Amino acid sequence: EILDRVLPTRRCDGNFQLFNSPLMRNSVTCSLCFDVYLHPVTTTCGHSFCRNCISTSFIYSKSCPLCRSPLLTDPQNLHTSVALESFVKNNFPVEYAQKVQDHRETLKFCDDRMPLLLVNSYAPFPQEEIAIHITEPRYILLVQRVLSNTTKEFCIIPYSQTPKGFIMHNTGSKVELVHSKALENGYEIHIRGISSVEVEDKVLADGYWHGKVKEYRDIAPTSNITLCHTKQNIHGIIERFKYLQKLYTHTNNPNLPQTTKTLFESDLPNSSTPEEWSTLCYYIGSLLPLTIKWRLELMKCERVYDRTQMLLHVLNRELI
Q: Which residues form the RING-type domain (predicted)?
């Protein structure tokens, strides 16, 4: 079909040169990105697209974007049309080279950044494990790409609804994908928090955000005075938690979720050494019905002393 539309013209040296007409340019243009083909594949219905373009479209719809015929094969499993790509490369070298360069820059730009999964008013603490159901097509694509990576890491960034609309917070969690299960309409993923992060910049690609993140440090007490005060805070946290544990176990507080009541029955982790204090704070924080404000404030504390001070404040005031 493509060759039938090509009109050859004779050059003065006797060789043939393809006539660069709009008709021929349209014949090698992907109808999804409106640029020349890059790694083109042809579907069972006979239409051609860039592999990346049709693969992204396949996440959203299992039909051909042009004729709506069912796509019986995942485009990632289709072979590249070598003849079509060679034709584009030989007759549109400038456009093809620019497309290749843009594609490489996009991959490099995204490789330097973490995929960001936006979650409504929630981000897990380090070592906290949660399960999430993924049904949005853009995040299905994110999960599939994370599963293909060696590290299986991405970031969860909370968003909140305000009178002016939705806002995306700059603090979130770097997480590890522990287990995934493919569902009919998406994935069920089990993740574990690794660290708290700050999003320094972000870019939108393929429907979801990619961000350059900086991990918050965990600074242990260095002076004897700070060490003593932090130890006192830890003692106060444990005593206050045990009091609340006893209170909520024997009373029916309508403001406390039933799942949190059950978690209050859990045993606290060891806290005999300064290295274990952050784990204790995050563990208790994961059991409390914290608002996203307090959760993020705890995650942003880099000094262990500040984190224990804030958690003690929450236990003494927020849950009375």
A: 30-68
Which token pair is 283? 């563990």
Distance CA 284, CA 127 (A): 12
Question: Buried b vs exposed e over 263-282: b needs ≥16 C-beta within 10 Å?
Answer: bbeeeeeebeeeeebbebbb
Q: Which residues pair with 49 in a beta bridge?
A: 41
Report the DSSP beta bridge partners of residue 16. Answer: 10
Q: Does the pLDDT value for residue 320 go beyond 50? A: no
**DSSP state at residue 189:** E
- Residue 215 host element (H or E): strand 208-215
Residue pointed to by tokens 């289709």:
78
- What confidence score (pLDDT) does residue 261 get? 52
Give the CATH number of the domain where residue 118 resides. Answer: 2.30.130.40
CA distance 24 to 56: 26
Residue 41 pLDDT more than 60? yes
| Residue at which a domain ends, from 153, 188, 215 | 215
Tracing tokens 């932090």 back to the chain, one arrives at 230
pTM, full prediction: 0.71
Residue 56: which domain range?
2-110
Contact 230, 219 (CB under 8 A): no
Q: Cα–Cα distance between 18 and 250 in angstroms, integer?
A: 85
Q: How many CA atoms lie within 13 A of 275 on its CB side?
A: 0
